Amino acid sequence: MTFLDSGAFIALWLTQDGQHGAATKALGVIKEEGGRLCTSNFVLDEVVTFVGRRAGATFAASKARGVLESKVLSVLRPDADDERAALALYEKFADAGVGFTDAVSFALMRRYRVRRAFTFDRHFGLAGFTLFPGTERAKWKTNPLPRAVL
User: Is 43 within the bounds of a domain?
Assistant: First the structure.
């Protein structure tokens, strides 16, 4: 199973994103492998908010509905134990700048034994996960307004 992080969704959904080509190619590889995919409701929240500000709420909500209705992508939801584990991971990786959403992702990945993250975020590597496609995303939060993928 492969965990989809925020950067992967953003790069896939926004065509002018600097990692769009790499993300599209990586998704093709995952599909060829027949691999299962997952993400979290925290990641979905982060992505819908980010994409909505750049491509509009209607576009972002449509993409989110597609995720929620997907037969190939599961949305994992933390329970109270996951949230406590995430707080410990958040503190552990504080010096590296890991956010709470990533810490929740790490906790869920550990619980569900997901080893690979489709991400451009080096923090997943610091937490012991395999990065796929394996390159760090360059400051996606500061990219100019991208054109949306329809």
Answer: yes
